[in-house]
Amino acid sequence: MKGLDLSRAFFETYGKPMLKKEFPDLLPFIAAGLCGSGSECFGYDDPVSTDHDFEPGFCLFLPGEEIIDRKAAFQLERAYAKLPKEFEGYKRSVMQPVGGARHGVLRAAEFFTEKTGTPDGILSSGQWLHLPESALAEAVNGELFFDEYGLVSTIRKRLSYYPEEIRKKKLAGNLLLMAQAGQYNYLRCIRHGETAAAQMSVFEFVKSGISVIFLLNQTYQPYYKWSFHALRELPKLSLLAELFEYLISSDNEEGQAEEKYDVIEGIAADIIDELIEQELTKANCGDLEKHAYSVNDGIEDSNLRNLHILEGV
Fold first, then answer.
1. Strand 31-34 relative to strand 59-62: parallel, antiparallel, unpaired?
2. Residue at which a domain ends, from 158, 192, 218
3. How confident is the model at residue 141 (pLDDT cuts 50, 70, 90)?
4. Which residues pair with 61 in a beta bridge?
5. How far apart (Å, rounded) are the C-alpha atoms in residues 270 and 238?
6. Lowest CB count within 10 Å: 78, 232, 244, 303, which one?
7. Which range of residues forms the domain containing residue 141?
């Protein structure tokens, strides 16, 4: 059973009835769901995932103390802790104070501050540029099962994806890194006899290329260990995952290196086609560097445009 399904079933079977019976006056202000850290919040969990931090549990997000005070929050924590210790064959972990790290009773403002540095999802351009993308992904992943008050839903909507100008800045930087690592430095390292440096160039190309594909899909990239899993599920350019895997898992002998360089150029061509399809570039060539600067030139905010092209990487 997937963790998200387990969480939803546990909430509907025990959590929601408990709230209706014991806290009817607070229920309209509470949001319930599962989001944040953990593969189950992305739907990426499998049998291996059950070896740690996997349990029937959910999050109860509370507004500020002016609406639900500390005493009421404490009562909610105690009620949550008393829910059945086992569900559908899975045991709940021992609760920590204030609901534990991933499940239980949480202040919405504290949850979003932990993920984004702000309690309400209102971010400056600098914050959008520099926040870890995986943290933003954790702020909006998973599912809300209940949110009549709408506070958490509103914040998640604000954070749902980068503003377009920020997306362009991040695209420009990652395209430039792809060009430098893959189209320029890879074969030069091979010719210098630096096969280890050549493979580092491949890693940089793949890392930046994956970032570009997520940006083109307007989807946050999760933590690196789930990046390939998520990449394969994207609607655009997901087939490149197999080529990326080939690049980072093959050696750099002379004949192999030429083949790998052809793959690099093929990936670049596919990405350029998508840039053109989305009208993000005016360049007309196969050089990713020129497309990087074209994307950056398309940023309307002059302050953002004039920042170093790698500012958002």
1. antiparallel
2. 158
3. very high
4. 31, 106
5. 11
6. 303
7. 3-158
